[in-house]
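Pinned message: reference record for Lipoprotein signal peptidase
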Amino acid sequence: MTENTPNTQNTPHLIPNGKFAFGYYILALAVLVIDQITKIGFQKWLKVEYTSVPVIEPFFNWTLAYNRGAAFSFLANQGGWQKYFFALLGIAVSVFIIRYLRQIPKSAKVLSLGLALVLGGAIGNVIDRFLYGYVIDFIHIHWYDVWNYPVFNVADIGICVGMALVVWDMLFFESKRKNGVS
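Predicted structure (tokens):
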């Protein structure tokens, strides 16, 4: 064993998730299933893009929107190549997370939870890109007609909350794990 290689026998907080990553895969699957069910439901209910139903006026509507780009419709009007680029990027991120979840220390529960949420959301949006050529969005936060947040979906919530947990882990727990504190 080299000087920089942690000895997992003497540092139980660094024992990898291994087969326990399966629980995080189940969480990712739950996010994926909820995401796909809600997207299908809202697409069948609202039928036409930009159809909007007020829920809590003046700031919350159900609005059917198709995102052909990435976050905030980034690169949406680029002729179609971006669909494949973002789908492949989503697949690459998903494969990385699937493998990495097995290697993360069991003690890194916040990190594992965050990555599981990102995984479910990423796969949910990749499925949309392959099936439809765009991502189905339906949650619309706004303030009258003065301010509109981009329409989003359950997968986006999983990705954003998951990344917030990853950053939270990075800021407050990663150095403790490296220093041997559980």
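Pinned by admin. Summary line: The helical segments are 21-46, 81-103, 109-132, 154-172, 174-178.
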